[in-house]
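Renewal narrative, Specific Aim 1. Our central claim is that a sequence can be written position by position from structural information alone. The example that follows is taken directly from our test logs and has not been curated for this report. It begins with the C-alpha coordinates describing the chain, in the order in which they were read.
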Protein backbone atom coordinates (compact mmCIF):
# COMPACT_ATOMS: atom_id res chain seq x y z
CA UNK A 1 0.00 0.00 0.00
CA UNK A 2 1.35 3.37 -1.01
CA UNK A 3 -0.23 5.07 2.02
CA UNK A 4 1.27 7.13 4.83
CA UNK A 5 1.57 5.20 8.10
CA UNK A 6 -1.63 6.63 9.61
CA UNK A 7 -3.64 5.56 6.57
CA UNK A 8 -2.04 2.11 6.65
CA UNK A 9 -3.00 1.65 10.30
CA UNK A 10 -6.57 2.73 9.54
CA UNK A 11 -6.73 0.38 6.54
CA UNK A 12 -5.50 -2.60 8.55
CA UNK A 13 -7.96 -1.96 11.39
CA UNK A 14 -11.02 -1.67 9.15
CA UNK A 15 -10.12 -4.83 7.24
CA UNK A 16 -10.52 -7.01 10.28
CA UNK A 17 -13.77 -8.97 10.62
CA UNK A 18 -16.55 -6.61 11.73
CA UNK A 19 -16.68 -8.03 15.24
CA UNK A 20 -12.94 -7.45 15.67
CA UNK A 21 -12.77 -3.83 14.49
CA UNK A 22 -11.69 -1.60 17.36
CA UNK A 23 -13.63 1.61 16.84
CA UNK A 24 -11.43 3.66 19.15
CA UNK A 25 -8.25 2.56 17.40
CA UNK A 26 -9.71 3.19 13.95
CA UNK A 27 -10.92 6.66 14.97
CA UNK A 28 -7.52 7.50 16.45
CA UNK A 29 -5.76 6.27 13.31
CA UNK A 30 -7.73 8.60 11.06
CA UNK A 31 -7.11 11.40 13.56
CA UNK A 32 -3.40 10.65 13.27
CA UNK A 33 -3.39 12.14 9.79
CA UNK A 34 -4.55 15.46 11.20
CA UNK A 35 -2.46 15.20 14.38
CA UNK A 36 0.87 13.53 13.42
CA UNK A 37 2.19 13.75 17.01
CA UNK A 38 -0.84 11.95 18.43
CA UNK A 39 -0.06 8.82 20.45
CA UNK A 40 -3.04 6.46 20.08
CA UNK A 41 -1.99 4.34 23.07
CA UNK A 42 -2.20 7.37 25.36
CA UNK A 43 -5.88 7.85 24.47
CA UNK A 44 -6.65 4.15 24.71
CA UNK A 45 -5.09 4.25 28.18
CA UNK A 46 -7.23 7.26 29.06
CA UNK A 47 -10.34 5.25 28.16
CA UNK A 48 -9.04 2.35 30.25
CA UNK A 49 -8.54 4.65 33.24
CA UNK A 50 -12.01 6.15 32.95
CA UNK A 51 -13.48 2.66 32.81
CA UNK A 52 -11.52 1.63 35.93
CA UNK A 53 -12.84 4.64 37.83
CA UNK A 54 -16.39 3.75 36.87
CA UNK A 55 -15.86 0.06 37.65
CA UNK A 56 -14.97 0.97 41.23
CA UNK A 57 -18.19 2.98 41.60
CA UNK A 58 -20.61 0.44 40.20
CA UNK A 59 -23.28 -0.81 42.61
CA UNK A 60 -23.41 -4.47 43.58
CA UNK A 61 -26.72 -4.94 41.82
CA UNK A 62 -25.86 -3.98 38.27
CA UNK A 63 -29.21 -3.11 36.78
CA UNK A 64 -28.83 -1.36 33.40
CA UNK A 65 -30.23 1.97 34.57
CA UNK A 66 -27.98 1.97 37.65
CA UNK A 67 -24.95 1.35 35.43
CA UNK A 68 -26.00 4.19 33.12
CA UNK A 69 -26.44 6.47 36.12
CA UNK A 70 -22.95 5.62 37.39
CA UNK A 71 -21.35 6.29 34.00
CA UNK A 72 -23.25 9.56 33.66
CA UNK A 73 -22.26 10.83 37.10
CA UNK A 74 -18.59 10.20 36.37
CA UNK A 75 -18.45 11.47 32.78
CA UNK A 76 -20.74 14.48 33.02
CA UNK A 77 -20.72 15.52 36.68
CA UNK A 78 -17.15 14.66 37.67
CA UNK A 79 -15.24 15.07 34.41
CA UNK A 80 -17.49 17.70 32.86
CA UNK A 81 -18.07 16.12 29.45
CA UNK A 82 -20.75 17.92 27.44
CA UNK A 83 -22.06 18.30 23.93
CA UNK A 84 -20.56 21.19 22.01
CA UNK A 85 -23.76 22.93 20.95
CA UNK A 86 -22.12 26.38 20.76
CA UNK A 87 -19.53 25.44 18.12
CA UNK A 88 -21.05 22.29 16.70
CA UNK A 89 -19.24 22.43 13.34
CA UNK A 90 -15.76 22.85 14.73
CA UNK A 91 -13.86 19.96 13.08
CA UNK A 92 -12.16 19.18 16.39
CA UNK A 93 -15.50 17.85 17.60
CA UNK A 94 -15.19 14.96 15.13
CA UNK A 95 -11.84 13.66 16.39
CA UNK A 96 -11.76 11.23 19.30
CA UNK A 97 -8.52 12.61 20.75
CA UNK A 98 -9.93 16.14 20.80
CA UNK A 99 -13.19 14.99 22.36
CA UNK A 100 -11.23 13.31 25.17
CA UNK A 101 -8.84 16.24 25.67
CA UNK A 102 -11.47 18.99 25.51
CA UNK A 103 -14.26 16.90 27.07
CA UNK A 104 -16.69 18.02 24.43
CA UNK A 105 -17.79 16.90 21.01
CA UNK A 106 -20.70 16.06 18.76
CA UNK A 107 -23.12 13.17 19.35
CA UNK A 108 -21.08 10.51 17.56
CA UNK A 109 -17.73 11.24 19.23
CA UNK A 110 -19.30 11.40 22.69
CA UNK A 111 -21.15 8.18 21.83
CA UNK A 112 -17.85 6.55 20.92
CA UNK A 113 -16.33 7.48 24.28
CA UNK A 114 -19.40 6.13 26.06
CA UNK A 115 -19.38 2.90 24.02
CA UNK A 116 -15.70 2.31 24.68
CA UNK A 117 -16.12 2.79 28.43
CA UNK A 118 -19.20 0.56 28.49
CA UNK A 119 -17.29 -2.17 26.64
CA UNK A 120 -14.48 -2.00 29.20
CA UNK A 121 -16.85 -2.49 32.14
CA UNK A 122 -18.52 -5.47 30.43
CA UNK A 123 -21.70 -3.55 29.62
CA UNK A 124 -21.58 -3.64 25.82
CA UNK A 125 -23.61 -1.08 23.91
CA UNK A 126 -24.23 -0.36 20.23
CA UNK A 127 -24.47 2.82 18.16
CA UNK A 128 -27.84 3.96 16.82
CA UNK A 129 -27.54 6.13 13.72
CA UNK A 130 -30.77 8.07 14.05
CA UNK A 131 -31.17 10.73 11.32
CA UNK A 132 -29.60 14.02 12.36
CA UNK A 133 -28.48 12.65 15.70
CA UNK A 134 -26.67 9.71 17.29
CA UNK A 135 -27.69 7.56 20.23
CA UNK A 136 -26.54 4.33 21.85
CA UNK A 137 -28.26 1.50 23.67
CA UNK A 138 -27.28 -1.67 25.53
CA UNK A 139 -26.87 -4.65 23.22
CA UNK A 140 -29.81 -6.53 24.75
CA UNK A 141 -32.80 -5.17 22.86
CA UNK A 142 -35.41 -5.97 25.50
CA UNK A 143 -34.04 -3.18 27.71
CA UNK A 144 -36.22 -0.78 25.69
CA UNK A 145 -34.33 2.47 26.21
CA UNK A 146 -31.64 4.53 24.52
CA UNK A 147 -28.92 6.86 25.84
CA UNK A 148 -28.10 10.30 24.43
CA UNK A 149 -24.43 11.03 25.20
CA UNK A 150 -24.66 14.51 23.66
CA UNK A 151 -27.27 15.50 26.26
CA UNK A 152 -25.58 14.29 29.42
CA UNK A 153 -26.38 10.62 28.96
CA UNK A 154 -30.13 11.27 29.06
CA UNK A 155 -32.20 8.09 28.94
CA UNK A 156 -34.74 8.10 26.11
CA UNK A 157 -37.63 5.84 25.24
CA UNK A 158 -38.96 5.61 21.65
CA UNK A 159 -41.48 8.41 22.16
CA UNK A 160 -38.64 10.61 23.44
CA UNK A 161 -36.60 9.76 20.34
CA UNK A 162 -39.47 10.95 18.15
CA UNK A 163 -39.63 14.22 20.08
CA UNK A 164 -35.86 14.64 19.65
CA UNK A 165 -36.28 14.24 15.90
CA UNK A 166 -38.93 16.96 15.94
CA UNK A 167 -36.55 19.25 17.85
CA UNK A 168 -33.78 18.64 15.30
CA UNK A 169 -35.86 19.09 12.16
CA UNK A 170 -38.38 21.62 13.45
CA UNK A 171 -41.34 19.58 12.22
CA UNK A 172 -43.14 16.33 12.99
CA UNK A 173 -41.08 13.32 11.91
CA UNK A 174 -42.57 9.85 12.18
CA UNK A 175 -40.21 7.49 13.94
CA UNK A 176 -39.51 4.60 11.56
CA UNK A 177 -38.16 1.34 13.02
CA UNK A 178 -34.98 1.59 10.92
CA UNK A 179 -34.13 4.91 12.62
CA UNK A 180 -33.36 2.97 15.79
CA UNK A 181 -31.44 0.07 14.25
CA UNK A 182 -27.84 -0.52 15.40
CA UNK A 183 -25.12 0.35 12.94
CA UNK A 184 -22.06 -1.74 12.12
CA UNK A 185 -18.52 -0.53 12.91
CA UNK A 186 -17.73 0.50 9.32
CA UNK A 187 -20.96 2.49 9.12
CA UNK A 188 -20.05 4.15 12.40
CA UNK A 189 -16.65 5.24 11.07
CA UNK A 190 -18.11 6.34 7.74
CA UNK A 191 -20.55 8.57 9.59
CA UNK A 192 -17.71 10.18 11.55
CA UNK A 193 -15.79 10.78 8.34
CA UNK A 194 -18.87 12.10 6.54
CA UNK A 195 -19.25 14.72 9.26
CA UNK A 196 -15.66 15.79 8.63
CA UNK A 197 -16.17 15.73 4.88
CA UNK A 198 -19.14 18.10 5.09
CA UNK A 199 -17.36 20.47 7.49
CA UNK A 200 -14.29 20.70 5.26
CA UNK A 201 -16.42 21.00 2.13
CA UNK A 202 -18.19 24.04 3.58
CA UNK A 203 -14.80 25.48 4.52
CA UNK A 204 -13.56 24.97 0.93
CA UNK A 205 -10.72 22.85 2.25
CA UNK A 206 -10.23 20.56 -0.74
CA UNK A 207 -7.25 18.67 0.67
CA UNK A 208 -9.00 17.62 3.88
CA UNK A 209 -12.30 16.96 2.09
CA UNK A 210 -10.46 14.62 -0.25
CA UNK A 211 -8.77 12.83 2.66
CA UNK A 212 -12.15 12.22 4.32
CA UNK A 213 -13.64 10.86 1.08
CA UNK A 214 -10.65 8.60 0.48
CA UNK A 215 -11.08 7.02 3.88
CA UNK A 216 -14.83 6.56 3.38
CA UNK A 217 -14.00 4.76 0.14
CA UNK A 218 -11.57 2.50 2.00
CA UNK A 219 -14.57 1.48 4.10
CA UNK A 220 -17.06 1.28 1.20
CA UNK A 221 -15.24 1.25 -2.16
CA UNK A 222 -18.39 1.36 -4.29
CA UNK A 223 -20.27 4.24 -2.71
CA UNK A 224 -21.40 6.13 -5.84
CA UNK A 225 -21.71 9.61 -4.39
CA UNK A 226 -18.30 9.42 -2.75
CA UNK A 227 -16.79 8.39 -6.10
CA UNK A 228 -18.58 11.30 -7.76
CA UNK A 229 -17.44 13.79 -5.15
CA UNK A 230 -13.86 12.56 -5.31
CA UNK A 231 -13.98 12.79 -9.10
CA UNK A 232 -15.21 16.38 -8.90
CA UNK A 233 -12.44 17.24 -6.46
CA UNK A 234 -9.87 15.64 -8.75
CA UNK A 235 -11.27 17.73 -11.61
CA UNK A 236 -10.86 20.91 -9.57
CA UNK A 237 -7.30 19.87 -8.77
CA UNK A 238 -6.62 19.25 -12.49
CA UNK A 239 -6.07 15.53 -11.87
CA UNK A 240 -7.98 14.68 -15.02
CA UNK A 241 -7.21 10.98 -15.43
CA UNK A 242 -8.24 10.23 -11.85
CA UNK A 243 -11.33 12.43 -12.24
CA UNK A 244 -12.41 10.56 -15.37
CA UNK A 245 -12.01 7.17 -13.68
CA UNK A 246 -14.17 8.14 -10.70
CA UNK A 247 -16.86 9.90 -12.72
CA UNK A 248 -17.15 7.04 -15.20
CA UNK A 249 -17.46 4.57 -12.33
CA UNK A 250 -20.17 6.78 -10.80
CA UNK A 251 -22.18 6.67 -14.02
CA UNK A 252 -21.67 2.91 -14.29
CA UNK A 253 -23.13 2.50 -10.81
CA UNK A 254 -25.91 5.07 -11.23
CA UNK A 255 -26.57 5.59 -14.95
CA UNK A 256 -29.94 7.24 -14.21
CA UNK A 257 -28.66 9.60 -11.50
CA UNK A 258 -30.25 13.04 -11.46
CA UNK A 259 -26.96 14.67 -12.30
CA UNK A 260 -25.96 12.06 -14.92
CA UNK A 261 -26.34 14.51 -17.81
CA UNK A 262 -24.17 17.11 -16.12
CA UNK A 263 -21.50 14.51 -15.28
CA UNK A 264 -21.47 13.26 -18.88
CA UNK A 265 -21.01 16.81 -20.13
CA UNK A 266 -18.08 17.21 -17.73
CA UNK A 267 -16.58 13.96 -18.99
CA UNK A 268 -16.85 15.25 -22.56
CA UNK A 269 -14.71 18.22 -21.55
CA UNK A 270 -12.14 15.84 -20.04
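The sequence written for that structure reads:
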Amino acid sequence: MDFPLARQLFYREIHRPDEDIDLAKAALYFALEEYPELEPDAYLNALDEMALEIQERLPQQRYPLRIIQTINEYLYDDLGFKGNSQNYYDPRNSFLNEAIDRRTGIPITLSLIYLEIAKRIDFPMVGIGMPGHFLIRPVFEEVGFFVDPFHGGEVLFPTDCERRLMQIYGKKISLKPEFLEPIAPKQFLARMLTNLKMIYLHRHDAKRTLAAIERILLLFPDRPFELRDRGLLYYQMDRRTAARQDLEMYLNLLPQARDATAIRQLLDRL
